[in-house]
Amino acid sequence: MEVTVQNLGQGRQERSRNEGVSGAATPSIEANWREGRDLAHCKTPERGLRKGRKRVEVNRRMERREIYYSGRVQGVGFRYTTLQIAAGFQVTGYVENLADGRVHLVVEGPPEELDRFVCAVSARLRHHIRTAEESRGPATGSFTGFTIRG
Question: d(Cα 102, Cα 119) in Å, to the nearest integer?
């Protein structure tokens, strides 16, 4: 499992794997958006699935991501906006408010689609996000759609 912590205030990203290997610090996606840099690697973050199409293709390799967002992320429409963005992508999962003031996003889908979805969420809500802590693992397949919890 890989864990990524993005600190938008500092503009850096730190990665570590559970094997104890630590990667070098690199600019975070959100920091680039906040500073107005070109994000060509995100390839049109709003691109996604058209309505009425199958949400998830079974034959593709699936991945699960859990992201904890902090900042001014509650009471600003974060969950509803994330739900609207998810409707355009081949992803399943949920988003919820936590008692400590953070927002928890659990999402599953093809890795490339998850990259685009996370880029879209970060781009749309960048003014509210201070940090994002992300972990990756294999998909469980326990979701049939994308919902808001709590």
Answer: 19
Helices 111-124 and 78-86 pack at an angle, to 10 degrees, of 140
Q: How many CA atoms lie within 13 A of 138 on its CB side?
A: 2
Structure tokens, 12: 């850096």
pLDDT in tens, 62-90: 999 999 999 999 999 999 999 999 999 99
114, 107 in Cβ contact below 8 A? Answer: yes
Q: What is the value of pTM for the model shown?
A: 0.67
Question: With a cut of 70, which residues of the chain have pLDDT below it?
Answer: 1-60
Report the DSSP beta bridge partners of residue 104: 68, 96
Q: How many Å separate Cα 64 from the centre of its chain?
A: 10
* Domain annotation for the chain: domains and CATH numbers: 2-44+61-149 (3.30.70.100)
* Residue 21 to residue 15: CA distance in whole angstroms: 9
Q: Within a 10 A sphere around the Cβ of 144, how many other Cβ atoms?
A: 9
Q: Are 60 and 139 in contact (CB under 8 A)?
A: no
Q: Annotated catalytic sites, by residue?
A: 79, 97
Give phi and psi for 98, each to the nearest 5. -110, 155
